[in-house]
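hiii so my PI (J.) wants the whole complex modelled not just the main chain, which honestly fair. so below is everything: two entries, each one labled with what it is. i double checked the lines twice but i was tired so who knows lol
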Amino acid sequence: MSRIRLLVGTRKGAFILKSDARREQWEISGPHFAGWEIYHLKGSPADPSRLYASQSTGWFGQLIQRSDDGGATWAPVGNTFVYDGVPGTHQWYDGTQHPWEFKRVWRLEPSLTDPDTVYAGVEDAALFRSQDGGKSWQELSGLRAVKGRLWQPGAGGMGLHTILLDPGNPDRIFVAISAAGAFRTDDGGLTWLPINRGLKIDYELPDPAAEVGHCVHSIALHPARPDVLFMQKHWDVMRSDDAGAMWHEISGNLPSDFGFPIAVHAHEPETIYVVPIKSDSEHFPPDGKLRVYRSRTGGHEWEALTNGLPQRDCYVNVLRSALAVDSLDSCGVYFGTTGGQVYASADAGDHWTPIVRDLPAVLSVEAQTLP
Amino acid sequence: MIRVVLPYHLRTLAGVGREAALPVDGPATLNAVLDALEAQYPMLRGTLRDPVTQQRRSLIRFFAIGRDFSHQPADAPLPDAVARGAEPLMIVGAIAGG
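here's the output for the full assembly
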């Protein structure tokens, strides 16, 4: 019988939640790396026992931890992230140029085929790759050549938060960066294109033709159709049918099109999930009701999923990396909140149950479907 | 041997008790002690000093015999009592966050 392993990163450590395929009873282990911020942890699709975790604090900087036994034991690997060549500068809040400075790893994305290859999205925004299991890291610096001088951090920092690997084309990678936008490489990371046409909102970035400067919160794709991308932007839920060449809005009847995460159903490429948040000024669900919204039509038409979720007095947030799906026949959907709850649905979102209610603020959730 | 007291999180990371004892060749400077510490416990690399610039992290402080050595040159000798192992060098994570 298949099993599910959830990898949960929080403000104060990592937790691993395990269940059988029924997804009713969960065993919780942790905190791993107690007291440290775990921005993200993820397993290798090529070897699910191989996990990578980003561990950091403001005191002691960045560590990368690796497990080769599914999270039972961990060992630190390389934590030196050096920008390629002369790091250069990017735009600062006052319009001046500011040196690129490494702060932390926001995202770890293991290769689809090689357990020793893993990508790291970092702040200040850049993409690094390790090909030796995390021992050493090299920057794919062509990304910052895409008008990096014009990138400017938002309030949450200039982090590279999303990395999508194209399962049909090993040379194609999509990334997204807070307040800079989305980018694509078709040559394994050597050169990059901005893929932000069609993204616009008057009071966010008035120039509709701006190639960079877009506040992308997260993007997602279905492995069977990697040219179709879905995006939760600062405002607006967007879709591209041509690998990011052009985007169009699919917010439809959402109560708010502000939010952070977006995910695609494991078996239905036109079924997508978002968690609407009231606004960029009020980072909590509209009307105090925690609702996941699902579209079965690839956008435009959305239904509220509320069964089992608090429908009054709920003022938590769901961060950009805290929504995930498993790949069992009945697709499981999971999300974590800044209030420390992790909710699970074993029926694609129709019914929800809290797995755990009182973790530290959840930063990320990843689901592994194990044989 | 030079005695070094590590902050809680780094003790856990390195798997050591409250104090670590380190052999240091040559003058006992901050750099020499930190080099010896990182050689003995490689997992601590980058946690006390920036791995590129080798500058002390902002919220790390070095104390010994009741004095703050955080701002002294990293190649200046530490007090004789520290060099002899009579007193520990205390590495402290600054109280911060309110």
